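Input (structure):
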């Protein structure tokens, strides 16, 4: 972590970290980034054919896979971008507003 105190009253606005940005690399799993989303993907296991297109396109690695099958969505880290729903050819994932 930087020595710079981002919460100091002496800190200029130009030196502050923009909200919602993780400044350290490789640490996104430490934060529940899913709190930022306004829509969430809802997965229907009956329609899912386990083609893994949703898994391949998810930028947050939020598609949960166990035993070579999709098991659900990690809502703690899903940001609701909708890429998984857009890629699903079987309508197994629908994006709904929260």
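Output (sequence):
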């Amino acid at each position: 972590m930087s020595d710079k105190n981002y919460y100091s009253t002496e800190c200029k606005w130009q030196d502050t970290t923009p909200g919602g940005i993780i400044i350290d690399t490789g640490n996104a799993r430490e934060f529940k980034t899913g709190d930022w989303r306004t829509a969430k993907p809802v997965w229907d296991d009956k329609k899912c054919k386990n083609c893994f297109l949703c898994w391949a396109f998810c930028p947050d690695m939020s598609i949960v896979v166990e035993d070579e099958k999709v098991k659900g969505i990690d809502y703690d880290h899903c940001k609701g971008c909708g890429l998984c729903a857009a890629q699903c050819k079987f309508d197994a994932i629908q994006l709904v507003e929260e």
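Notes: The CA atoms of residues 26 and 83 lie 22 Å apart. The two ends are 34 Å apart (CA to CA).
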